[in-house]
Amino acid sequence: MKGKLLVFGTIIIILLTACYTKKDKITIKRVLVEKEIRLPLPKGVLSSSVIQIIKENGKTLLFVYFYPQKKIFVYDLNKKILIHDIPIYRNLAEIENFRYINKDSIWIFGSHSLRYNYDSSLMVVNYDGVIKHVYPFYNNFFVSLKTYPNLYCDSIDAMDEMAIDTILFAYNNESPENLIVDKKIFFTTIAGNIGSKSHLPHLPIVGYYDLNKKKVELNNQLYYPYYSDSLFYPKSRLHYYYPIYWSINPKGRILLSFCYTPTIFEWDYINNDVKMHRVKTQLIDTIYPFLKPTQLNNDTTDIYYNIFYVSNLEMYLRFARLSSNYGNKNIVIFSDNNFNYLGEAIIELDEMPHYIFDDNFISTSIADDSLTLKFFKYEFKPLDINAIRKHLDSINNNNKEKEICRITGKNGNIPYNSEGFIRYLNNFEINDSSFAIIILSKNGCHTCNDYIAKTISINQHVFFNLTEKPFYLLYVGENEQKSNVYHILKEYSINKNKHLKVDTTSIYPIFNPFGSENPRLVLVNNEKIVSDTVYLPTNLEKLVENLLEFYGLTAE
Question: Which helix (H) or strand (E) holds 265?
Fold first, then answer.
């Protein structure tokens, strides 16, 4: 099983008049696309993460946050044009969520890293971005200037590992009223140094900001479940943490789910009572713990995502993702009011809803310099779980064998070695006896990729013109369209050239022994790998230094 995965917006499934009964287990018969809307992209965006659609003064407006812009963009969906942008003036590490109430009340929810502080994580702005109110978050667990006055001088390594460095506000796209419940705004927490044997089971993972008391309250019962000082589950993606997904059910209770377990935790915050439920797909085996901290392997590990209640169906829907062995297919699991299993279905990435509006699901994608909104519904039929299993087995057996054989000339699983890795690079017409290559992955942390890509972009007139020992950039976008990958790189002004390579297969993890997909620098001299290292956020500058040293270059 597998993390940042991705965080999805609220999801509601529209039950069409289908031919099944209440006693039948259900699956999706087909996806009915109502329409698609293509919108022009502003400059300098890489992805869209949060959207909201409203009707106001006879107009249908789309509000969207594009990473890494510090703005909320506003579109007129009827005219299909960009009409406004709302600047965010505070120095937020990233915008995690927002909610438009009216032109005088737009809530902005930011997250921070250890290089920032929580003193401005939550604020209200108007339509022009003017800050109306800032809610400071102070707590002994939080990284802030109040608790760490010398924050900007200290290195990350010097920080207290018992500090929580990031909080994530929920994606309450299902119902805006859930944004604030009883004058409380809920969030989950992330600890930057997760993985050590002492503090992981003991850090609070959920809390809320009380708008009346202007105070942070943390739950004192809920921690990462099933962990101990000697049992660890795979970390999600390249991040330091294990994602916590959450939503609010009709009873006003918080539902927490984790990537490594089918167990759901229901928190009654009024009485501080916690109940446990199990919502499991029949397509994912038990996820077993390890005896030491370990990185998640996308190639072999499946993961669970969030759970949401769908009021018009009186159902819960939970999402999961299969490993790249199965094409990273997504799963939606249906359960009743009491969390009893009702069925499940396999869905493609663009059939994963990010939002709902006017009884339609909406998914978003970026390609060919456009933002595309896909409006669709699901139609249901009785479930045949064995048919789904056979379909997934055929994907696993055919696709993986074909890709591995194409690159290595051999079938079956292949242990990692330097010779096999060189053959992997040969597949991209990298055949030089001496060269350097940086590998970036879409599963790597955004800020790390951003730093390296900008460094390459600024100096590409040097790097891409080296001849004696060429330099290559390989971008790994598992199961992506190549056009999407080139669009991402184009935003850094890195255009197609013979030294830019793209891998959209799902087999890179076979040739990556690190269990991490952070930026990787490989140096080859006289057909021998002399250095092969993955660089974490704290030592990205070292990657650049080693690259320059390899070529005898100096930084100005």
Answer: strand 261-268
